[in-house]
Amino acid sequence: MFLVFYISQTTVGTWLADILAGWIDTFKEWAGEKLGDANPLLYALLIDGIIGGVGAVVGFLPLVMVMYFLIALLEDCGYMSRATVVLDPIFKKVGLSGKSVIPMIIGTGCGIPAIMACRTIKNERERRSTAMLATFMPCGAKLPVIALFAGAFFPEATWVSFICYMLGIVLILLGALLIKAITGMKYRKSFFIIELPEYKVPSIVFALKSMLERGKAYIIKAGTIILVCNTVVQIMQSFNWSFEAVEEGMEDTSILASVAGPFAVLLVPIVGIVSWQLAAAAITGFIAKENVVGTIATCFAITNFIDTEELELIGEGNAVAAVMGITKVAALAYLMFNLYTPPCFAALGAMNSEMKSAKWLWGAIGLQLATGFTVGFLVYQIGTLIVTGSFGAGFVGGLIAVACFAAIIIAIIKKNQKSIAAEYQLS
Q: Less crowded by CB within 10 Å, the N or C end of the chain?
């Protein structure tokens, strides 16, 4: 598994991604030259919205495709089946299945195929639980967000990305225990049945077909939902309500700023300040997590420090941190908030199709929102207490919100357990 990630994320996958990104940049420059002095609205729509938005997402395609190809080889040779058997006793204790490990591994590439992979789990409750929790693993779209904040605020700290993935695993296990308590798992039994194929030399043709099938969902995501949403966001942050182009330094007059402003108050317990820019980035992150980087670059007018096409830090990290105006603790908390709140709209669509239950879907969204907010709140407030000796801004409001989350969950657990216990006593 180490080799799978090393090859896909560090060597071959990165090399192919650089080539594809170069082609996309060339095409964008060519299209920009052809438009020339076109209408600003048309230019923003075509160049920045459509080509730039889709190109930023497609730039991650080689990393994802290489990883899918290597995982398919492991599946075909018989390794993954044995991995699920070994892990099943551990996952059973928290209410999941050994087969849950495969969606979680795939989830490090993209949440959509990870959720789709849950259909191999026969038990309905375990399948829905896995689909709900798999997106806590940081996917490829979240890597630019991790890289931006690690480079800007923690340039010498190699532990940031490690913590993000380890915390994702911890949240999956804790979330599984919570769902187990809510659904009354102690009254129900599930059985793990799987065919163990013989070890054999994997088929290259099978791996290629599997890679293309899984990659198709990623491409559809870039060509439909992200295309539309990113175009709308680009227009909102480029124009005011009179549809006049927003001048540099006047970004707070844009449509996006006026829409994101009210939500900025909700982030005070996490970042300590009222910032419509950070609120706007979080909102666009629900459309696609990689949008967080581009929105921050545009809203803070620091495109000279952040490459919005490659979604990476190209300037001095300290300068970016200074412009954003938040502490290191707040930056880490904001990063955690974006990683563990609900995934992109496309992944939520896949979750809806796999769960086949509106109740479970809204429960998943509520759990993920509560988890992201709670983790961000705890990181900021505890971190600020350690650094400064006192809690940060918004402590009381955040504590009330977390207490409300806990009260709702406890009430649901008590209600469900009573009804399930009564049901089993009658039977």
A: C
Closest C-alpha to 266, from 363, 370, 171, 365: 370
Is the CB of residue 305 less than 8 Å from the CB of residue 316?
A: yes
Q: What is the pLDDT of residues 342-379, one digit of tens each?
A: 888 778 888 888 888 888 889 999 999 999 999 999 99
363: its two tokens: 């429960």
pLDDT digits (tens, 9 = 90+) for 88-130: 888 888 888 888 888 888 787 778 778 887 877 888 888 888 8
pTM, entire model: 0.75
Most distant CA atoms of the chain, gap in Å: 75
| Contact present, 323 and 89 (Cβ < 8 Å) | no
Tokens 């299209």 locate to 31
Distance CA 230, CA 271 (A): 25
User: Under 8 Å CB-to-CB from 98, ≥6 apart: which residues?
Assistant: 83, 84, 85, 86, 87, 88, 89, 91, 92, 192, 194
Domain span at 409: 2-426
- Could you tell me if 351 and 132 are in contact, meaning their C-beta atoms sit under 8 angstroms apart? yes
Phi, psi of 390 (to 5 degrees): -145, 160
d(C-alpha 368, C-alpha 309), whole Å: 29
Instruction: Indicate the residue type of 414.
Output: K
Inter-residue contact 3 to 12 (CB < 8 Å): no
DSSP string, 127-152: HHHHHHHGGGS--GGGHHHHHHHHHH
Judge residue 65's burial from the number of C-beta atoms within 10 Å of its C-beta, 0-12 exposed, 13-18 middle, 19 or more buried.
buried
